Amino acid sequence: MNVLWLFAHPDPHSLGGALRDEGLATLRGLGHDVRESDLYAMRWNPVVDKIATVPADVRAEQAKLTWADAVVFQFPLWWYGTPAMLKGWFDRVFVKGYAYDVRGEDGRTLRYGEGALAGKRALVVVTTGSPAPALGPRGVNGPLPDLLFGLQHGTLFYTGMSVLPPFAVYDADRLTACGYASAALALRDRLRDLGRTSPLPFRPQNGGDYGRDLVLRPEVAPGRSGLDVHLG
């Protein structure tokens, strides 16, 4: 596979940097072709400018995406979301006509399961200082799948990507050597299955579950609400 690794962490010597190095070495050892976008090392400009033409740095990132069969998005969970650098990457790279407002031959808008990035796999790798239970169903921080919903469903699946279950490392600022070894082993295992892991079963917009108002039909998940109703 062609794999793009998108890394958004300011410290290459951090836990995140060590896991990135483990991941890249694993993928290359498995024979995959790998490219990397290290946003802080690149001094990526996260600010959208009013420019008539697509800047060269954006075209280069779009070329990497077009080339890739799978994309790994790695970042620390900051204030319940991605670092601003990564958010700015999406703002500038996922532009109109490339990642959204794409229409099929029948005139339908292709989104939520369809679109320009359909057929590509996406894996979120996230580190967090929170212990796992605090990001669980009754944890004070809220469930991790809910915190990642905007990214995984509203950005990656929206553009057509097949989103794999995320890989999370908890207690990032208290991880022992044994804990790191366990996390690295688990990451290597996940990457070995990158092409085989079943994606999250998000419901496609045009698959029949939603009406013309883009609301789930009454017979779909009746009586339920919340973000997980969008999982089939």
From TrEMBL:
Pfam families: Flavodoxin_2
Keywords on record: Oxidoreductase
Domain Flavodoxin-like fold, chain residue ranges per copy: 1-176
GO molecular function per UniProt: oxidoreductase activity
This enzyme's EC code(s): 1.-.-.-
Class of enzymatic activity (EC top level): oxidoreductase
Protein family according to the UniProt entry: Belongs to the NAD(P)H dehydrogenase (quinone) family.
The name this protein goes by in its record: NAD(P)H-dependent oxidoreductase
Organism: Amycolatopsis rhabdoformis
